[in-house]
């Protein structure tokens, strides 16, 4: 007896000979777990680089941290046992209003210098992409000379420029511009003008790094995207703000992070300018203040630890931003 025919809704549709049937899905093979020696190999290769770093950076950091909880001075250098005092060094420092003034000046100096450095550096990098080859090479050579000159040699030149009797800056302000108040003016005797000179020197020496790293990032922006935005009627500022700037933002975040770290622990520029006749107590920043405590090793270690904590707090924002950019 023949089987009854299937109803129309359950009958298989006719096969089109011109349409290829999809290939059956292949089962995904299970991931083979590597042996422990293969997994350990990359970490073993890092050991030759990590050991010198751990010895060169880890030991001084641990030693500094231990000294900050001890009473350690010149007597301990000659064999007297160090006395454990706990948090006394930290309470003595953080209860001193002068220390908080130094911390506030250091943070303000760091943020102002980092902001100026990033703004001037990005502007010069954009300028290098717009000028001709001769002007670009001239600018690059000048920036390399400013970046490669030793710090002490640069400070000597700037001290002559701001000299009260023979400085070019005072001559330009007094004779050509007619500002008689700057004739014989001492730029390092007042804290405000002292920090102005220090800012000029620090920014002068830091701008080349930002220029070169930003210029290299701008060269990686696709020309097709720039041309398409230009054809759509976007101005130069709109192309930079909405196209180039988002693409180079990770590079700018790294450059800004490095500038914050470098400007917070600036020492040589401030120390040399202080030796030129500036009032030391009114112009101390964190680096020079820690150096002034060099005879009291325990207080210096505590202040250096506080400086490390401040650095980590200031750079935490940039690190979170960089991690967020990588996740997008």
Automatic annotation (TrEMBL):
Q: Does the keyword Cell membrane apply?
A: yes
What InterPro entries does UniProt report for this protein, alphabetically?
MetI-like, MetI-like_sf, UgpAE/MalFG_permease
Name the domain of life: Bacteria
Pfam families in alphabetical order:
BPD_transp_1 (PF00528)
What residue spans carry the region label Disordered? 1-28
- Membrane-spanning regions, if any? 40-62, 98-127, 139-161, 194-219, 240-262, 297-319
The subcellular location is: Cell membrane
Q: How is the protein disposed in the membrane?
A: Multi-pass membrane protein
Q: Where is the composition biased (Pro residues)?
A: 1-16
Example of a GO cellular component annotation carried by this entry: plasma membrane
Name the GO terms of the biological process aspect. transmembrane transport
Which UniProt key words apply to this protein? Cell membrane, Membrane, Transmembrane, Transmembrane helix, Transport
Domain annotation ABC transmembrane type-1: ranges:
103-318
Homology family: Belongs to the binding-protein-dependent transport system permease family.
PANTHER family in the record:
BLL4140 PROTEIN, DIACETYLCHITOBIOSE UPTAKE SYSTEM PERMEASE PROTEIN DASB
UniProt protein name: N,N'-diacetylchitobiose transport system permease protein
Native species:
Geodermatophilus amargosae
């Amino acid at each position: 007896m023949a089987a009854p025919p299937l109803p129309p809704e359950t009958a298989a549709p006719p096969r089109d000979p011109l349409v290829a049937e999809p290939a059956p899905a292949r089962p995904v093979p299970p991931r083979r777990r590597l042996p422990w020696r293969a997994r350990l190999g990359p970490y073993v290769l890092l050991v030759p680089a990590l050991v010198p770093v751990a010895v060169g950076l880890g030991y001084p950091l641990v030693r500094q941290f231990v000294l900050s909880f001890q009473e350690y001075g010149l007597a301990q250098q000659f064999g007297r046992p160090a006395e454990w005092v706990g948090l006394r060094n930290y309470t003595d420092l953080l209860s001193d209003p002068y220390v908080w003034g130094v911390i506030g000046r250091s943070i303000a100096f760091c943020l102002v210098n980092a902001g100026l450095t990033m703004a001037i550096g990005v502007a010069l990098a954009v300028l290098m992409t717009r000028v001709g080859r001769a002007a670009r090479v001239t600018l690059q050579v000048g920036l390399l000379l400013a970046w490669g000159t030793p710090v002490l040699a640069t400070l000597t030149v700037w001290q002559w420029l701001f000299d009260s009797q023979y400085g070019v800056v005072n001559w330009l302000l007094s004779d050509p511009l007619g500002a008689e108040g700057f004739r014989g003016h001492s730029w390092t005797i007042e804290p405000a003008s002292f920090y102005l000179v220090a800012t000029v020197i620090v920014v002068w020496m830091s701008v080349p790094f930002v220029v070169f790293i930003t210029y290299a990032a701008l060269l990686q922006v696709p020309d097709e995207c720039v041309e398409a935005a230009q054809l759509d009627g976007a101005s130069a500022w709109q192309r930079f703000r909405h196209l180039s700037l988002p693409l180079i933002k990770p590079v700018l975040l790294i450059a800004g992070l490095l500038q914050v770290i470098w400007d917070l622990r600036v020492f040589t520029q401030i120390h040399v300018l202080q030796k030129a006749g500036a009032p030391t107590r009114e112009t101390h920043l964190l680096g020079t203040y820690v150096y002034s405590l060099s005879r009291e090793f325990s207080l210096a270690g505590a202040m250096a630890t506080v400086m490390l904590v401040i650095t980590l707090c200031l750079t935490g924002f940039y690190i979170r931003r960089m991690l967020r950019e990588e996740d997008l």
